[in-house]
């Protein structure tokens, strides 16, 4: 991660998600977590406190996963597929209510998975929107299509109000550190499919195991 942090641009982070999938299309957790660390430390945090509600939660989830990936059962946490097989097979997942296994890997990655969908939709909105598009609208639409369904009303209200203070589309594109806004748009077109692919593989796995609504 040192290279990502010292010479950051968003393309480096997004393309790192390409490394998440091996030839069998397994999601490699070390690369997945590294990609997320780059998104938080070098993109979300650079945009200020507005996104702290997401970046703080993501950081907490990353710490849980890092403990699992380096713990005594780490051989089961090399990929998302091996983790799901291990935890589901050994009844280490709370399927109906959060009780005995509140910090299972399946539950923790599901929260990251949902946040990744929000970020993917928001970046895609930035890529395809006109120059005068309101980022508050783009971000709210992305949030409503992803994370909002899992948040209580008071959080949804606070978040959508906070979105009204977001910087302009141009500021977002410049924060990606890949050149002009036009170059940033081109980069997103090249790099976002890597996140989309990781998301779709993860979504399919969670659907097959009926894990999309873990408490």
UniProtKB/TrEMBL annotation:
Keyword hit for Transport: yes
Gene: Cptp
SUPFAM superfamilies for this protein: Glycolipid transfer protein, GLTP (SSF110004)
Protein name: Ceramide-1-phosphate transfer protein
GO molecular function: ceramide 1-phosphate binding; ceramide 1-phosphate transfer activity
Domain Glycolipid transfer protein: 28-177
Keyword terms, alphabetized: Cell membrane, Cytoplasm, Endosome, Golgi apparatus, Lipid transport, Lipid-binding, Membrane, Nucleus, Transport
Subcellular location as annotated: Cell membrane; Cytoplasm, Cytosol; Endosome membrane; Golgi apparatus, trans-Golgi network membrane
Membrane topology reported for the UniProt record: Peripheral membrane protein
GO annotations of cellular component type: cytosol; endosome membrane; Golgi apparatus; nuclear outer membrane; plasma membrane
Organism: Crocuta crocuta (Spotted hyena)
Reactions the enzyme catalyzes: N-(hexadecanoyl)-sphing-4-enine-1-phosphate(in) = N-(hexadecanoyl)-sphing-4-enine-1-phosphate(out); N-(9Z-octadecenoyl)-sphing-4-enine-1-phosphate(in) = N-(9Z-octadecenoyl)-sphing-4-enine-1-phosphate(out)
Protein family per UniProt: Belongs to the GLTP family.
Domain of life of the source: Eukaryota
Gene Ontology process terms (BP): negative regulation of interleukin-1 beta production
């Amino acid at each position: 991660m040192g290279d990502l942090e010292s010479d950051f641009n968003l393309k480096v982070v997004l393309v790192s998600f390409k490394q998440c999938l091996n030839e069998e299309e397994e999601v490699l957790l070390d690369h997945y977590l590294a990609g997320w660390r780059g998104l938080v430390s070098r993109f979300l945090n650079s945009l200020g406190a507005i996104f702290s509600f997401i970046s703080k939660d993501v950081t907490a989830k990353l710490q849980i996963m890092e403990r699992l990936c380096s713990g005594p059962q780490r051989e089961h946490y090399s990929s998302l597929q091996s983790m799901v097989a291990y935890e589901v097979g050994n009844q280490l997942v709370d399927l109906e209510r959060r009780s005995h296994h509140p910090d299972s890997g399946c539950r923790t990655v599901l929260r990251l998975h949902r946040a990744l969908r929000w970020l993917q939709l928001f970046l895609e909105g930035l890529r395809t929107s006109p120059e005068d598009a309101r980022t508050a609208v783009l971000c709210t639409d992305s949030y409503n299509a992803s994370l909002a369904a899992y948040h209580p009303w008071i959080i949804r209200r606070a978040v959508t109000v906070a979105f009204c203070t977001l910087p302009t589309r141009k500021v977002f594109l410049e924060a990606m550190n890949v050149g002009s806004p036009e170059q940033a748009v081109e980069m997103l077109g090249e790099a976002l499919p890597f996140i989309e692919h990781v998301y779709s593989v993860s979504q399919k796995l969670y659907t097959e195991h009926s894990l999309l609504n873990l408490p």
